[in-house]
Write a structure and sequence with these properties.
Shape: globular
CATH topology of the largest domain: Protein Transport Mog1p, Chain A
Structural class: alpha+beta
Distance between the termini: 19 Å
Radius of gyration: 21 Å
Number of domains: 2
CATH architecture of the largest domain: 3-Layer(aba) Sandwich
Order of helices and strands: HEEEHEEEEEEEHEEEEH
Largest sheet: 7 strands, antiparallel
CATH class of the largest domain: Alpha Beta
Helix content: 10-25%
Number of helices: 4
Strand content: 25-35%
Number of strands: 14
């Protein structure tokens, strides 16, 4: 997630300084997010009603390793107990620093926000000082393939551990989602075909009106020449769909990687070269995974 630029002597003062920054940042951007309503308040940052804001416990702030430090701003969802349930990068800096800031924020503890004397959950915006792991052993499953035209946008820790974490990227005119989760009971083929079946049945909320599969099958990739002994054997599908009368093309794939599955989904307008961008994204993503699998501690 180095104290260069802060010049504070210890973790308690560092935590207080972090809180002061967070308070100002939250006040400045409060109008940029909608008010929290219903049960979906954990899905994305929203403005909660409270009399007193969450207060950071300075002792919960993990120490920083040495190295270049940056300070991404992170939306943090603090539940009624003061635990951090979700963290999303709001103002990205550079990919590895963004991931380190998010991971560091997930360890924070707070005195929760309060409304009428009762603890309530709330999102707050916090600048989180971060130093990533060494580049050779960074969490490369979340690498950003910049040459593919994708930029890291945000991440969400999903509610159930079996669902893992969703990392969202923006490409030229469309988004790419990467889900990193523990192996499921289904095989990669089973996961992809089950999703296609649900889409065809209209059982996915907000899903397309129609689905026509163009190509589906095993996808065996050797990520790069440097990793000739590492292959990713997954299953993918490419399909055309109609969403609210607009024709689009979609790609989805599942690749086993160690004890995890990497699930990639993207939908893009026809004619924007989305297929080539997604292919490059997948190639670079798996090359990064291969680097970790071969040369870094698990």
């Amino acid at each position: 997630m180095g104290r260069r630029g802060w010049m504070v002597p210890g973790p308690r003062l560092a935590g207080l300084a972090l809180l002061a920054f967070a308070t100002r940042a939250a006040a400045q951007e409060e109008s940029a997010v909608p008010p929290c309503t219903g049960e979906g308040r954990e899905a994305a940052p929203c403005r909660a009603a409270y009399d007193s804001a969450p207060v950071l416990d300075p002792g919960s702030v993990p120490p920083l390793a040495g190295g270049e430090a940056l300070t991404p701003r992170v939306w943090i969802y603090v539940d009624e107990t003061g635990a951090v349930r979700h963290a999303q990068v709001a103002q990205p800096t550079r990919h590895d620093w963004d991931m380190a800031a998010r991971d560091r924020a997930l360890h924070f503890r707070f005195t929760p926000a309060a409304l009428a004397g009762k603890p309530v959950a709330a999102w707050i915006l916090v600048p989180v000082r971060a130093v990533p792991p060494p580049a050779s052993c960074a969490d490369v499953s979340m690498s950003v393939p910049l040459s593919a035209g994708a930029q890291f946008a945000d991440s969400v820790v999903l509610d159930r551990p079996s669902l893992g974490t969703r990392f969202h990227y923006t490409a030229r005119g469309f988004g790419i989602d990467l889900f990193v989760h523990p192996h499921q009971a289904l095989t990669p083929r089973g996961e992809v075909e089950n999703t296609l079946a649900l889409l065809r049945q209209g059982a996915v909320r907000g899903g397309p009106d129609s689905v026509a599969v163009l190509r589906a099958g095993a996808q065996r990739l050797r990520p790069s020449r440097r990793f000739r002994d590492v292959r990713f054997n997954g299953y993918s599908a490419l399909f055309r769909a109609t969403a609210e009368g607009i024709p689009v093309e979609s790609y989805m794939a599942v690749f086993p990687a160690g004890g995890q599955d990497l699930e990639i989904r993207a939908t893009y307008p026809l004619g924007v070269h989305g297929r080539a961008q997604v292919a490059e994204f997948v190639q670079q993503l798996l090359s990064s995974r291969a680097s970790r699998m071969k040369g870094c501690p698990r």
